[in-house]
Amino acid sequence: MLPRLDLAAVWLAATASVASAQTYRRFGTCPSLGCVIPPDQQDFLPGQEFDIRFEVHAPKNGSEAFNNGVPDEKFTATISKDGGRPRSIAEFFKIRSEPSLEKWTFSWFEDLFAEDAKTPSVVNVASKAYRRVALYEPGTYTVTLNYFSGKKTTAEWTVRPLATKKKAKNVIFFIGDGMTTNMITAARLLAHKAVNGKYQTLLSLDEFPVLGHQMTHSIDTFITDSANSASALYTGHKSTVNALGVYADTSPDPQDDPKVETIVEMLFRIWGSAWGAVSTAYIADATPIALSGHSRLRSQYGVLIDQALNGVQNYSWTKTDGPDAYFGGGADQFIAGPGSYQGKDYYAEFAKKGYSISLNKTSLLSAPNDKKALGIFCKNNLPVWIDRHIFPENLEINNDPTGAAKPAKDLPGLKEMTLKAVDILHNRGGKEGFFLMSEAASIDKQMHALDYDRALGDLLELDDTVRATIAKLKQLRILDDTLIVVSADHGHGFDVFGSSDTKYFDAQEDERSKRNAIGVYENSGLSQYTEPKPGVSYGTGANFPMNWDPRYVLAAGVGAAPDRREDYGIGATPRAPTTSRGGEAYVNDQDRPNGFVVNGTLPTSESQGVHSLTDVPVYARGPCQETFGGTYSNIDVFYKIANCLGLAHGRNVTEGADKNRGKGKGKGRD
Asked: Average pLDDT in the 249-267 region?
């Protein structure tokens, strides 16, 4: 028997302690000792499949110490709709038997002082997980967890309205990773000429009819990463930093957290449509892999590639039969060895399932459009646009996708990969259409490295790709059937504040004098990037700068960065702004050696720039474009796209997967 009076007193102290914590929390979505996952205030698409987990925590020590560290193993949980009769989880979802009780222990630090002292708080847990359920009727659902002799945790869930009509045959979702309005403004200034304040040409993005903004917060922090932000965009459910396709729990296994069905899983299950992903990152990186991945740790690269091909294996879950087009970098997860799942050759695993395999641009462009296609073009991230076109000597590194000690030079860019993916998906999707995600990944990666020119070069490549894709859709006569969305997953605190006279900058000997080369307000002048320079011709077309290295360059920076040197202007080699000594980041004197030192604003362990709070833009054109105006949560991007695709059904729909099962293309509910 649990002592009620003692419980109440300790409970008040425990909840007060957790409420005051910021840097560290026992469990971000669970301020009490009883945890409902998904937690309070979550939204669902009708018919979207998900898992439920309940946890009861009993801390053994620390400010939350409770019940001698013994969790209540006899907890119960109920669910009710719109104030109706509460029913047990098993009864409500028609689960034949209760799941087994699970138990484990985890530890955490209550604050920075506890971490410095190496005194963790230990928590014992009792838990149950209910797998693969769905809510079909719109409305409000109340989930109540009862534990510790009358204590309760309540979560309110909202199931959004039905939307069963498919309004867009196809969706192309472009993601400029880390891209903000400020970066788009800077890219426009680099590549498009203005006369007396009026631009003579514009970005492709500028011509979209609808512009909105999305808020990027994660579920338990206001600064997000690319994993859980991608999950919000693809599932309509926020998650925790590093998690994708799941609500994070506290269990030891990062693969058993409560899953949520993604947009391509639903699209295949309901309509049998084709889907694909293109990225200039390694294909197991967060943004592309979150379309099919379910893990608390984005770093489980090998497992996540296997999930993309074969689906979730440790629990019954929706199958997509793998992507129809899958292009990017990341050979380490495909070459048989320590980086691949179970050491297998995943080039061979994809080939066994009927994929064409391309390892360079030449083979990609000649790949058949009627077969599924895998294209992996280098060992890690693809080299950025500037290094492929302006400084090709930077490609002279061992980066071959076979693992051979030689460079990868026959490289496609985002445009070539995207246009080929459109050809394949249009062919394979047929009357059921397709979903394609195309990511300009190194906008973010180069912003992290404080290499602003390389980041903006990749943003211009994204814009050029969007322009070319619209032309391709017109050519295929499917533009009017295709919703195109261009957005980001998060931002960086970047902006341009003036120009810098590089000639004067270089002539100054002391660091303080160098700062006088920066022109602000009336001294910022005009962009010289669009002015021709004798002897300089890159052959990169009208949508890119004519001169990447003018005398007067953009003076730009970010709001949060480590100690580093700055000299503005383009660097002939990619940036490495810091060097590590004793686990701390210091100025790298080999990077921008003629620049001046800028003191950092981040923890000394941070070697690069970090993400910021900013809302990010959402551009839309095509069917349902009118729904994308305004300011809304990142999860609403999912609901807008899902409704346009007719994915919100009031019954368990598996017609798409059932139809493809007969063609050897996949499985539905199993």
From this structure: 96
* Cα–Cα nearest to 528, from 497, 566, 500: 500
If you average pLDDT over residues 499-510, what whole number do you get?
97
Residue 567 among known ligand-binding residues: no
Provide the token pair at 259.
């899953």
Catalytic residue from among 32, 121, 204, 226: 226
Helix axes 452-476, 181-191, angle to 10 degrees: 80
> Which residues 6+ apart lie within 8 Å of 71 measured at CB?
56, 57, 58, 103, 124, 125, 126
Whether 607 is catalytic: no
Work out the angle at residue 587's Cα, subtended by the Cα atoms of residues 584 and 588, and round it to the nearest 5 degrees: 105
For residue range 166-203, what is the model confidence (pLDDT) as tens digits? 999 999 999 999 999 999 999 999 999 999 999 999 99
In the predicted structure, residue 212 carries a pLDDT above the cut 90: yes
Confirm whether residue 389 is marked as ligand binding: no
pLDDT at 342 over 70: yes
448 is in an annotated binding site: yes
Closest CA to 220 of 247, 181, 260, 198: 247
The answer on whether 332 is annotated among ligand-binding residues is: no
Tell me how far apart the alpha carbons of residues 113 and 10 are, in angstroms, rounded to a whole number: 22
**177 among annotated binding-site residues:** yes
Greatest Cα pair distance in the chain: 88
Cα gap 575→588, rounded to integer Å: 10
The mean of the pLDDT values for the chain is: 93
The SS3 assignment for 461 reads: helix
Q: What pLDDT band is residue 19 in, cutting at 50, 70 and 90? A: very low
Cα–Cα distance for residue pair 457/280, rounded to 1 Å: 13
Alpha-helical segments (H) within 132-256: 181-191, 226-235
